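User: I need a structural model of non-specific serine/threonine protein kinase from Haloarcula rubra for a docking pre-check later this week. Nothing fancy, just the predicted structure tokens so I can convert them on my end. Input:
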Amino acid sequence: MVQNVASVMPELEPEDFHLLSGVEQGMRFSEYVNREKLTEFSRLSAENVDYRLDRCEDRELVERKTIQYEGFKLTFEGYDALALHTFVERDTIEGFGAPLGVGKESDVYEVQSYKPMALKYHREGYTNFREVMRERDYTSDRDHVSWLYTARKAAEREYEALETLYPDVSVPQPIDTNRHAIVMEKVDGVELSRTGLEPEQVVPILELILDEMQTAYEEGFVHADMSEYNVFVTTQGVVVFDWPQAVPTDHENARDLLRRDVDNIVSYFQRKYPAEVGDVDVDAVAEALATESFDSLSEHTD
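Assistant: Understood. Predicted structure tokens for non-specific serine/threonine protein kinase:
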């Protein structure tokens, strides 16, 4: 599990961030950066590099490995520190709060600015790098890909989708992004998977989700990872989150991914609320969403 670096940040000095940035630059070319290269990448003296490496290694921001040479790479904590430092310098955030959610591919924390917000660190590639390499189209054509690149590209993909969709689609408002991290609106709601809906709420909530999927398609994106874990139920309706796997609607697999999204969310409702949902023609619903002709679930239910 990646540790929260917020408590370490006050201990770090500007030169520590120069060193971390130097390691980051070197990792574009190899997994472990040769110690001798770090004076060039960090623009620090050899003596200062040695001192900063010890400080950063003590705080678990870099990892050392001796192979044919002595090499260093950033840990996710080190990468988090670089992103968090940038957000503070930009005045995007002023304080760090409690965790909001920890998952396989992201960690989310509450942060403070002019109002409470959410800071999401992408973790793609940290524990399942080979699987991510196979599945993510933004890594498929690169010979050397580090988890830094994979996580950063996931954040870029999600931020692009949020900027395009907000506010026409009910998604968290994007605020800022740097490296593998995104600052966004903190949503006050309950994850759909943890929500117990009253019978009269079931179909309206499902239709709200399908409406958001239809509007997203109109705006140019398919979520491509829809499930009960990616929807908040709020007092105003629903909010769809987690968009790093989103694909543009001109993608060759967009229609298939839209159908899969419809099947995933409809199947969840059918399992949990079979009496209220009934049999749904998933193919017909997906076609209606893609052609902007979806109106109500009853048109596609036996």
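Before docking, keep this in mind: The first strand starts at residue 33 and ends at 34.
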